[in-house]
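Posting for a labmate who doesn't have an account.
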Amino acid sequence: MKNKILIASGLLLLGSCNSTTTIKTEHKSINPKDKEIFISDLKQRTFNFFWDLADKTTYQIPDRYPNETFASIAATGFGLSTYLIGIENKYITRDQGAERVLKTLRWLNNSVQSPNKTNTTGYKGFYYHFLTNNEGFRFKDVELSTVDTGLLMAGILSCQSYFDGNNDQEKEIRDLADKLYLRVEWDWAMNGQKVMTMGWHPESGFIDCNWIGYTEAMVLEILALGSPTHPIADDAWSSWCKTYKWADFYGYDHVNFESLFGHQYSQMFIDFRGIQDPYMQAKYIDYFENSRRATLSNRAYCIKNPENFNAYSDTIWGLTACDGPADTTISFKNKNVLIRTYTARGASVQYIVDDGTIAPTAAGGSIPFAPEECISALIAMKNTYGNALYSQYGFKDSFNPSFITKKYPNGWFDKDYLGIDQGPIVIQLENYQTGLIWNLMKKNKYVVNGLKRAGFKGGWLGD
């Protein structure tokens, strides 16, 4: 996530690259039945990541697997919505899903909220970015994260809207969702400014970085505006929009943000089709269309492939935050290339961070915006690289066909799956097919109130 400290852990590998690999890309149309089989398999495998791997004590979702590090509160938010997808697709029963959600919310509600440096889970309703496995305490010195708490709350509110039954279990889910959301002190996190801080440390106070548009934090702003207990100011959204960068990038005029996750995370939860704030009304589009253009411009950049990396094509593409091979500089095609482990890769008029590493979640999380291009890319990646990239829980996090060494003669392939990159794939697949999470959030009064306070009108919101 942009300008965040300790986003996710990376693997430290060293090596060099001095050879190329030719990738044969299939351009023929995809058989509809094969496409259906692939989507069905991908969705269930990716769902299983969340269902199988939730911590048995805290029910938080791991940041990554099989490398065990810590739990991610954003991934937990994604996981909560994913359980609903599991119910609707009959991977699990409604009772099984409700039981898992209830255990997760109970643990979050009972976890330690305090200003202490250690043995705490959060403070003022917010949660620390990463939590230790088993105990669920702050991991090392990570920040109290505003955006990750926002993504966690979005998942919680999707469950509140879904579990509408009159039995004790579903009533408790709704009550706990209310309690968890309403106790978040969004106004405190403004730190006396017009824009929200990215986080807080008990050792030093607020982080000297703020959330300003356009990033993945749209949903954070909407939830903060919608709160009846700790709302942020009326002009917060207009302040957020003031730093938007509207420009053409590879043939698409849009509000630029280099990594595709910034165009995906909020739209996993909120259906922006047909609704507009004053900024988008003036541009005659909506944020959904903006993300469509961002997706296609990302793809167009990869097709053009100005750095001449291996494998990039009209079906092998996608730059976003993800793992990478190593923190090193290599010689590649007679030039030096800076290679990174985990970083926010992407391409826009503002920044280009491209070291030859492609992440399937870049296409997977954009499926509703450009389904033909994104699904074709995922199928091509699976068919081209097989088990090296696609295995037990669907797509491994990333791969770099240009990072070729004695250890990686066929290029580098991640060994891990990442929770925050698995979530967009399964949730956006479901939104594309049924609109499930979008429709649930349309029914949530806090989300609706936040959108209206931000100045959104039209479409399903009305005037």
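Reply:
Got it, the structure tokens are right above this. Residues 51 and 195 are 36 Å apart (CA to CA).
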